[in-house]
Amino acid sequence: MHKFANPTQFMRIANAIYPWVAGICVLLFAAAIPIALMFSPPDYQQGETVRIMYIHVSSAWLMMMIYGIIAANSAMFLIWRHPMANLVARASAPMGAVFCALALITGMLWGQPMWGTFWVWDARLTSTLILFFLYIGYIALADAFEDSERGDKAAAILALVGSVNVPIIHFSVEWWNTLHQPSIIKASKEGVDSSVHSSILLPLFLMMGAFTMFYFALLVLRLRSELLAAKIRNARLSQIAGHSAAQPAE
Amino acid sequence: MTRKRRRLYFVLLGLLGLGAGAALVLTAFQDNIVFFYSPKDIAEKPVCEQRCRIGGLVAGGSLVKEGQNISFDLTDAAATVSVKYVGILPDLFREGQGVVAEGRMNNGAFIASNVLAKHDENYMPPEVAKALKDSGHWKEGEAPPAGMNNN
Fold first, then answer.
1. Per-residue pLDDT band at A241 (split at 50, 70, 90)
2. So what's the ipTM on this one?
């Protein structure tokens, strides 16, 4: 694992899998969007409103997965000082924030017609809003210092502290009674257990797969540009250093 | 012990402490985090003298509508509370459905200022719901039969 801490090594693999990830992402979206949004059946209670769920659950899945990735990479950065881990965490944060916002917004749009309200302060909704603030706080803190290394460290610590919220979000619907319904997909001994009919569950899996591939494809692109930006920064710095070293000789 | 080792233990210990702290806080605030009380809670202790929320199933045959004046019984099988409400009900509201009512107890009845419908985790096409009901495998308001996806 430690050899992937080297950016060159890491990007060699990332660049090799990128066309596959991007290709699978396009294929999955090409299947998931028409199936989920047009051809899948309406729900017996919600009618066509159920289609919001495909976007909502996929976004919520990504906001949780991305936070997990940020927390794991922050730990690796703090313990082993791997620069690549820090870069992955930093590049993921804005994407996590966007998917978290998407989950909140689609949830509100669904809640108004179904529950009769946009928002309630139940445990699931409140903990998800806290996750959104954690993302925003992480992004702000990472860039809040003149010395970017201090920002890296402070943000990594915030990400680790915030990681207690992830299991709270997941189990909130089991630990407390909430307005939000319990999880519709559960891992069980026999594999995946769900109270969702297969004609609705299959498009949901397609959509979740498409969203996940989209994140990984975008992550590679963001890492490439981050590394290029670092190269440009270093080139500028050495240029300035070269100038000031040359000056006394004049 | 190398510095990396030390940092690893420090992070693990920190997470452990944080997790324990969060667990203690959440247990301590257990009563404040629940979104609604059940009719059984209300029968046992006077939790709803001030504003609160109660949640349960709308008892079958209890719904009475006179224009906007609505009354129904909210039940959790252990206890029942009668609810009075003036206003518009959400789309999902019907007998057998889970709902959450916001308001306060007054002379043994719950005066609701707001009624929210609770949605369950069961998703299926209308034809499947109809087939399950017709064949007698499932009644509205109950959990659908196991192995629904194998039908």
1. confident
2. 0.80
